[in-house]
Design brief:
The protein is α/β, with parallel strands linked by helices and 299 residues long. It has 10 helices and 11 strands. The chain has one domain: Rossmann fold, CATH 3.40.50. About 4% of the residues have low confidence. This is VWFA domain-containing protein.
């Protein structure tokens, strides 16, 4: 009789323990989902408005570079609104903004870019606002690119200086997932900022790659042994995720793509950026999933 009672009590105890474990797992899962959904996003887009978008210098029969950029921006804004719509209204506290460096001389472009700094909180979030973001970004960025192409005054792109002096203050906020998407062909050049320190530089051009002798099959060993790359920026950007889109290497060097990515990979890693991806130029339809997976953290 006692053995039967003991067995019954032990059985009930095991059921109770199992139930508690299952409930704990369920609560942990729900907490994980809520944390993921309620995460606040701070998305920055850095646009390279150099002559890479010139229809005269770099025509592209399949799809012009600026049209590809606009397609990428569309995917970014769609990912942003998808994230917003996944949250409860009271949880919303998210941002998206667009930058150039240096700022274009065209006053209209700078004015429009200010309108593209969007802050959505529980106080101003509405279905109307959320549904307007994609069209707003699409129409206004189209005007920016078309104006830049019409002006035909390309002053270059100083991405190195943007990281050196602006990223920390303008693209990183506490308690946010900070994401920087860079639209560039992978080269960097600005007339007003050409710094060299041995084999390190603040810029990268096809001419520099050629001058550095990185045009043969042994480029990788030379790159590492000679300490080539971008000048290191002494900053801890571990709170920043970076997606580089549009790498478009010169066709004169079969190793150009790998060299560009080596420069970027070394540089981003030195700044302690843990999560980054570097992608070649492709049709927006092919890049849509890649962009949204990166922003929405889908594996």
């Amino acid at each position: 009789m006692k053995n039967t009672l003991h067995k019954s009590l032990l059985f009930l105890l095991l059921i109770l323990v199992f139930s508690c474990k299952e409930e704990t797992k369920k609560e942990e899962k729900e907490t994980t989902i809520k944390t993921s959904v309620s995460e606040n996003y701070n998305i920055s887009i850095l646009v390279d408005l150099s002559d890479r978008i010139s229809l005269k210098k770099n025509p592209n029969p399949s799809m012009e570079i600026y049209q590809r950029d606009l397609g990428y921006i569309k995917s970014i804004s769609e990912a942003f609104t998808e994230h917003l719509k996944s949250k409860r209204m009271r949880q919303i506290d998210d941002k998206m903004q667009l930058f150039f460096n240096p700022e274009p001389e065209n006053a209209e472009i700078n004015s429009i870019s200010k309108d593209l700094r969007i802050i959505v909180t529980k106080d101003n979030a509405s279905k109307e606002l959320l549904n307007s973001i994609n069209d707003n970004y699409s129409s206004k960025t189209t005007v920016i690119y078309e104006s830049a192409i019409k002006d035909d005054k390309y002053i270059g792109s100083d991405i190195w200086n943007f990281f050196d002096s602006k990223v920390q203050d303008q693209c990183i906020d506490k308690n946010f997932r900070n994401i920087l998407v860079i639209l560039t062909d992978g080269y960097m050049f600005y007339e007003g900022n050409q710094i060299k320190d041995g084999n390190l530089s603040s810029y990268l051009t096809p001419q520099l790659i050629k001058q550095n002798g990185l045009s043969t099959n042994g480029w990788e060993k030379k790159f590492e042994k000679g300490n080539f790359g971008f000048i290191k920026i002494n900053a801890d950007l571990s709170d920043l995720d970076v997606l580089v889109l549009g790498i478009n290497p010169s066709k004169n060097n079969p190793f150009e793509e790998k060299i560009i990515k080596a420069y970027w990979t070394k540089w981003l890693s030195e700044m302690k950026i843990k999560h980054f991806e570097i992608k070649n130029a492709d049709l927006p339809s092919n890049m849509d999933k890649i962009i949204k997976d990166f922003i929405l953290k889908k594996e």
